[in-house]
Amino acid sequence: MPDDEIDISAEIVGSDQELSPTDEIQTEMSPTVEEQPEEVMTEGVEEPVFEQAQEEIVVEEPVPEHVPEPEPTPEPKPVQQGPKTMNRWIVVVGALLIQLALGAIYSWSVFTTTLTGEGFRFTTTETQMIFSAGLVTFALVMVKAGKLQVDWGPKKVALTGAVLLGLGYILASFVGNSFIGMFITIGIIGGAGIGMAYVVPIAVGMKWFPDKKGLVSGLAVAGFGFGATIWVKLAGDWGNLIEKTDLHTTFFIYGIIFFVMVFVGALTMVNPPKGYAPKGWTPPEQVKGGKGEYNYSPKRLFRTRKAKKQFYMIWTMFIFGALAGLMVIGIIALFGADALVASGYVDVNDYETLEDATKAAAAIAGTAMAVFYAIFNGVGRITWGAIADKIGTKKSLMAMFSLQAVMMFLIYSMGGNEYTLYLAAAIIGFNFGGNFSLFPTTTAEFFGTKTVGQNYGFVFTAYGVGGVVGPMMAGYFKDSAGGVEGWAPAFIIAGILCAVAVLLAYMLKVPGAPKRRRRKNPQ
Prior knowledge:
The protein is an all-alpha fold. The protein has 20 helices and no strands. It is globular and about 75 Å long.
């Protein structure tokens, strides 16, 4: 029998039923299943037995001539995606626009010559009081601005800064030669505008760039340093705005420019959507006591002993860094002029009067500030931020303060030559710029990224303290000694303080999450 033919006799009869001889002959003569019609297969077989065989043998049903087409399967609806996020680099562009305008505070020296001249007759102390008022107001308002970001959102806070900064300079153009008028308009109102807008790009940028916190904080504030060069040179020997118009008109023009720049930049200041993460970036696994494990609110920060201790160490370091950098900004023109004349680099015999020689030396010192210090201040903000991403903020702080300490000890001897003065200004400005990328990053790592806008406002009050103590200390020693040697003690003290900051940086330790106190069950 061929393999593809099936003997169904045993299955039809069943295992417990024997075949008769006649049945055996009939079975052998029966055609195969493929040739046997259905009626022949079932002939002489009882119905129950046939039902058993039908259950065990699978017979394909004939295919009908007309097969109806299946109904089309509806296409699946597209999966709903989350809200589309904007290109995060737009935030960086907006941050640079804001910070370029805020850098106006470092351009104040370009106005002081006119203010102490015949038309205004301000004393040097009065010009510095306006500058100091701007620095202190800037630092104090930042504390409030950090909290307002939570209540208002970053865009509204930055827009408020645009209005205040622009309004301060515009109003200053209408106060005449009033010291009080400029103190209030530029020092208080303008300083408040800078304080409102300054922290916004830092806080927003870190949320968009959790993978590059150091770099983005540097980029976010780089414009602050570069802005000083633009506004000094535009009002001075590049644009000659003061000479071509007058001081009041220059204030008005600057007010309009500052308002527009900060306003446009503020439009990009929006937080990323909840749960945002850059493409291809995986958040590092949180380790107990590790960086960013816990987001401290300011209230919790100052109530937690270990966090408060780290805060005051960071705050003290920032005071020392700000003191050294802002002191040099305030005195470099005067110190440079004294040092260049005293060393003979600017020879008095080459000029008709000592005053002419001093002006020539002051011009060299002015270039040291407006070009070398200001530009490298901006470069330092970016570079130190990138370095922190590579080696960590703690090591970066130690390196930055070590280099700054060395420069504070050397600048007195480097001031007597034009080119070594330029070099000293560039390195000190480079290190000073590092403060503004490393301290926000440190604040985020120690006390949480989500609350950095609030906490950094408190850290930044150190800037106001250093901005007052440094220049005043240098002025005191200079007035006491009288000659160029009067500048040396201030530089030495600043160098020692920077060295102390290195030790403080070495002792820093991330506080981690606070311990929760267990409440006793009432008896």
